[in-house]
Write a structure and sequence with these properties.
Elements (H helix, E strand, L loop, with lengths): L16 E4 L4 E6 H4 L8 E4 L26 E4 L12 H13 L3 E6 L4 H12 L6 H11 L8 H15 L3
Parallel strand pairs: 2-5, 3-4, 3-5
Antiparallel strand pairs: 1-2
Helix pairs in contact: 3-4, 3-5
Length: 169
């Protein structure tokens, strides 16, 4: 990808890692490494492009209903691996506003915790209009994982978001 910055050592796993001070905090990780931590968060931003990562239980007794729904909310984005997500830039600004207004603790994850997770985190960072795409990616690669944001398609999407948010939309 064009940058020659020295990044954080390649990660052996992607357990929840706090990467942003926004609202109650924003963490990143991979689906499987984070699964046991889901209840610690208010929002799970599932970037896997697959169905919910949250176990679903159906307990057919009135006393069991309280165990069927988790205490957190899951946002599932239909997002193919190594691609950009096809979603309006306003989604990111609305999400950030919600996180801040509700002091939410957020976990962003995909299967590997790299491309889609890094792209989503960078999108969140760009919403304020103060970050530049490569500065945000470099920050994540230094402080989270050197593989955050994997493809040129993802970088192009983020550059488009940067232009959108810099224009004050």
């Amino acid at each position: 990808m064009g940058n020659t910055t020295t990044y954080k050592k390649k990660c052996d796993g992607h357990f929840p890692t706090k990467v942003l001070e926004l609202g109650g905090g924003v963490w990143a990780g991979s689906k499987y490494d984070c699964k046991g931590s889901f209840p610690k968060f208010d929002i799970i931003l599932n970037c896997t492009g697959t169905a919910s990562m949250v176990p679903k239980h159906k307990i057919p007794y009135e006393w069991g209903e309280k165990f069927e729904n988790p205490v957190f909310k899951e946002i599932v984005l239909d997002w193919d691996n190594n691609q950009a997500v096809l979603i309006s830039p306003d989604f990111w600004s609305t999400l950030v506003k919600f996180i801040v207004d509700n002091n939410s603790r957020v976990l962003v994850c995909c299967v590997g915790g790299h491309g889609r997770t890094g792209t989503a985190l960078t999108a969140i960072m760009l919403t304020g209009g103060t970050w530049k795409t490569w500065d945000a990616i470099d920050h994540l690669r230094k402080n989270y994982c050197n593989e955050a944001v994997e493809t040129q398609v993802q970088v192009d999407y983020l550059k488009d978001l940067e232009v959108y948010f810099k224009a004050g939309k």
